[in-house]
Amino acid sequence: MPPKNPAQDEVRVEVEGRTLSISNLAKVLYPNTGTTKGEVLNYYAQIAPVMLPHLHARAVTRIRWPHGTGDMSFFEKNLPSGAPSWLKKVEVPTTGSRGGKVSTGSTTGGSIVFPIVEDLATLTYLANLASLELHVHQWTVPEWLPNRMVIDLDPGSPADLHECAKVALLVRERLSAEGLSCAPVTSGSKGLHLYAELAGDLTSDEVRDKAQLLAQELQEENKLVVWKMTKSLRPGKVFLDWSQNTGAKTTISPYSLRGKLTPYVAAPRTWDEIEEGAEERHALGQLTLEEVLRRTEQHGDIFGELLHGR
């Protein structure tokens, strides 16, 4: 029998007028469920209408699992080598602040050229590279200022989503008093993210400080909350991670897959679900790609609705 030609597993597809080469569609990327690369591509194609608006104008860092989530992964910030010329990109300085742009926190000088994901063709191109996780900053270009604040609720075992939901309700109440609506997202990992829309008139450092103050105040009011990053303080509590708003930091995008053994998603949730999760342990869990697709088919983009106070 002649050796198999790897190119035989490659197909060329048209996506929004762009020709893409897609390969290894049968490769299993999620070992617990046998979810293949083809199914991952299908998920991102179906979720794109609700996901792309929240990636708009944001530099995207990817985490890639070329051999599936049971194997090694790596972060990728720069535009992939061999990226098509039509792929939108942005150059971000890596030191200081230049021309109002945001530092990524590096001290080595130079810049990073990030991809910008604003269409299905780009999303498909990156997913074909096994870029399962898409992480974004809270600032957008060309304004270079954050237009949303994120609060990452990270439970320290034995705390879990039950405790996160309780704290989420406290955060919602505090933000509401400031005239801010917020949208909850189960992270697809352990915790819960809360997003509040901002006017875009604060720097990343100012938003970070605002989130830190909120965390400090809530710790004074509730024994479940801890605002310091010290891990020894966190067992049984919920760390309110304010640092995700730093200009260099990124957070998993709503609707992105996670690189777990099971294809969990950073899934937008309703406040009814959060309230139920706060009342009853195990009522709130992480959601898989199939569950998220069913929800968006029925209800559309609940994240955008909640973020914009609708």
Q: What would your notes on this structure say?
A:
The structure is a single chain. The chain has 7 helices and 20 strands. Residues 96-100 have low confidence and may be disordered. It starts with 9 loop residues before the first strand and ends with a helix. Helices cover 29% and strands 25% of the residues. Helix 3 crosses helix 5 (271-279). It is an alpha+beta fold.
Q: What does the radius of gyration come to?
A: 20 Å
Report how far the terminal alpha carbons are from each other: 62 Å
Please indicate the percent range of residues in DSSP E strands (runs of 2 or more).
25-35%
Number of DSSP-assigned strands: 20
Shape: globular
Major pleated sheet? 6 strands, mixed
Oligomer: single chain
